[in-house]
Design goal:
The protein is an alpha+beta fold and about 260 residues long. The protein is about 40% helix and about 20% strand. It is built from seven helices and eight strands. The strands form three sheets. It has a four-stranded mixed sheet, covered by helices on one side. The protein has a two-stranded antiparallel sheet with strand order 5-6. A two-stranded antiparallel ribbon has the order 7-8. About 0% of the residues have low confidence. The structure holds iron/sulfur cluster. The site of iron/sulfur cluster (SF4) has 7 residues, from loops.
Length: about 260
């Protein structure tokens, strides 16, 4: 059996979908598997010398790695997705995605490190972009539960990682509402991109479009009176007829349409 798996780089290290979701780029890794071929692993392309070849499978695997390593284009995620897709084809449809995740996690030699995590001289690790860190990081490990701020029960960090009793929950709630707002805007940005792009676009053109869009959206937001903006964030999940959310999204649509 011969399998070709093609997985794209993504924008998931940019914007409010940080590390959770992103737009697929036309820069793709390709991995070729031949179950009848000489067992072994080989690579060509970006960082080929750094990619593992020691774990010899029972088939031939050759990869064309085009996504640069550790440059924020999702090379680790692409590798994981590639492995899962190969497993799905080889192991058959009866193997459920959860089982495949466990296979991948077991085989992964080291936990995923955020590219912004830096090691200080004293050995401690810190966020290298803490003041500008994404909202998904600012709100972790909290989430909305029935409209209230609640601590997730599936966190990976030890119980003493946060001083829960000392948390400023009202401030945290505002940050989470801002995150919800950004997710809504981002979903609209994604829908506009998908609606207008009909053929492959160079990465540079895509990033230029993204920066232009968010530059114009940010200029629109900065023109809002501070009390209007604060009210928009504070009542973002408000579903009453007086909610400021629809008016804000009308501005977003107008900004996007003017581009
Ligand atoms: S807090 Fe900073 S280092 Fe940690 S995941 Fe977020 S961006 Fe990365």
């Amino acid at each position: 059996m011969r399998i070709t798996v093609r997985v794209p780089a993504t924008s998931a290290n940019l914007g409010p979908g940080f590390d959770c979701f992103g737009l697929a780029l036309d820069l793709c890794n390709e991995v070729f598997v031949d179950t009848e071929g000489e067992p072994g692993v080989s690579w060509e392309g970006e960082g080929a010398d750094e990619l593992p070849t020691a774990s010899v499978p029972v088939f031939s695997l050759h990869g064309a790695n085009r996504i640069p390593l550790a440059r924020g284009l999702g090379s680790s995620a692409a590798a994981a997705v590639t492995g899962v897709q190969i497993a799905r084809v080889l192991l058959g449809p009866d193997v459920q995605p959860a089982s495949l995740s466990l296979i991948r996690a077991t085989d992964e030699p080291a936990p995923h490190r955020c590219v912004f995590l830096v090691t200080l001289d004293d050995g401690f690790e810190r966020c290298g972009i803490h003041p500008q860190r994404p909202y998904v990081c600012r709100t972790y490990p909290a989430r909305f539960r029935h409209g209230s701020v609640a601590i997730r029960d599936d966190v990976l960090c030890p119980p003493d990682a946060w001083n829960i009793s000392g948390l400023d929950l009202p401030a945290w709630r505002l940050t989470m509402l801002r995150q919800e707002l950004e997710w809504t805007v981002y979903a609209y940005v994604v829908s506009r991109w998908n609606a207008t792009v009909t053929e492959p676009v160079a990465d540079a053109a895509y990033f230029a479009w993204l920066l232009d869009v968010y530059g114009r959206l940010e200029a629109m937001r900065a023109e809002l009176e501070p009390d209007v903006w604060d009210e928009t964030v504070r009542r973002w999940l408000d579903v009453s007829g007086s909610s400021p959310a629809p008016a804000f999204m009308e501005r977003v649509v107008a900004v996007m349409s003017a581009g």
